[in-house]
Amino acid sequence: MHSDPDAIKQSIRSYLKIGAALYMFTVITVAVNQIHLAVPFAVTLALIIAATKGSMVATVFMHLSHEKKWIYGSLLLTVVFFIVLMTLPMFTTMDHLGTKSQSAMAPVHAGASPGTAAH
User: Fold this and answer.
1) Could you give the CA distance from residue 15 to residue 8 in angstroms, rounded to a whole number?
2) Which of 27, 64, 82, 119 is most buried, judging by how many CB atoms fall within 10 Å of its CB?
3) List of E strands, 2-100
4) pLDDT digit string (tens) for 49-77?
5) pTM of the model
């Protein structure tokens, strides 16, 4: 941190702004919890709010906004892997390997009962 009084005032001002924004997002988190949304939507919204709050903390309070360019590359890689991990369950629900397809299930003939074979 610089010893210049104006730079110190600017840093304190940015800390107070981020602190107010974190407080606002905490209030939003509590308000969203009171709404009782569907579980997938609630989890997605909670992760978005948490990621926003975490990025604010990392950039300002951990001073990552003043780091070198390779830090941004590693943060971008983290975001990419986060998106992959969030979409991975969607791909598992679309997987139908090993399940019986609709065409393999033969319909029961009109005159036969399910226990007897139609000739």
Assistant:
1) 11
2) 64
3) none
4) 998 898 888 888 877 766 677 777 887 88
5) 0.54
